[in-house]
């Protein structure tokens, strides 16, 4: 893998989850541009730096020896990458304080360096939370590759921080400089809520959730076909989002033992609140995780999954394939993985490579529900 070289450091960086012969880098030209600008401006050793959405830790690892660094993001895989990359480059784990996006950061900060996220609602919530957390004279800079920088990102920076100035593009990357102004405390529009009729639920959705304003059509196709009569089965909702699949399964299977896992901290936060609202104090495990990587082998009877087809701006089925492999390892012999997916993704053929029996449970013109038996 290429070395990430900037005026601050030369680093060996890797993405998470690991992939054999991974063609993708853990950094890009926007990281380079941001760090070059920061070096030109001068960074005091006692400067308090907040990093938002620092993908795989390229910014944090570069700045850790040079400032007091706090990093916040919504990806558990990103947090794992940060920890791995600190260790791989002989940097102390405590050199960077990581704060999940589901928790508030505590300033004041002299610099706020933002990688513009794919979900602008996450950016908006993060900017709202900066109110009262900036030191006098603080500087706020957002960075992105031009192709991933919508006009709305700049509008949010102006709305919540202050006047905006854009840099020239360098290597197809751009910086946005926002000058902080005194503004009244903003009111967050998050979390959002929506209602389901079947099952009857009102669901809480924090800012970075997929399909935050309504049930996504894949899950809508899956819900009527969830298995019942499971008794005391051990069930995982893998990539649980707001928890709707796991909650619906629990409602029709009162003795089932549920585990809900997602790599998004805001998804886990939403799922916990939704479980409590629907099922009170019924026992459950809800956690942020790298899928089922931490799940004991042969410890589940059933896995439910509406797999993702992207990681940040990268589209592909590598995350889904990894989740299928994790599910197989975690299931007992005879256990089942139930998934919903777009027809064109060809999950039926992929599952046949891992499982001894694959059946179509239901289908509509766009989606198929599949059951794979170990």
TrEMBL record:
Any GO MF annotation of the entry: nucleic acid binding
E.C. designation(s): 2.1.1.174
Annotated Methyltransferase small domain residues: 201-371
Keyword Oxidoreductase in record: no
Domain (RlmG N-terminal): residue spans on this chain: 1-181
Entry's Gene Ontology cellular component terms: cytoplasm
Protein location: Cytoplasm
Catalytic activity: guanosine(1835) in 23S rRNA + S-adenosyl-L-methionine = N(2)-methylguanosine(1835) in 23S rRNA + S-adenosyl-L-homocysteine + H(+)
Lipoprotein found in the keyword field: no
Keyword annotations: Cytoplasm, Methyltransferase, rRNA processing, S-adenosyl-L-methionine, Transferase
SUPFAM superfamilies: S-adenosyl-L-methionine-dependent methyltransferases
InterPro entries registered for this protein in UniProt: DNA_methylase_N6_adenine_CS, RLMG, RlmG_N, RsmC/RlmG, SAM-dependent_MTases_sf, Small_mtfrase_dom
Pfam family, one: RLMG_N
Principal place of residence: cytoplasm
Task performed by this protein: Specifically methylates the guanine in position 1835 (m2G1835) of 23S rRNA.
Family: Belongs to the methyltransferase superfamily. RlmG family.
Protein name: Ribosomal RNA large subunit methyltransferase G
Organism: Pseudomonas cavernae
UniProt lineage: Bacteria, Pseudomonadati, Pseudomonadota, Gammaproteobacteria, Pseudomonadales
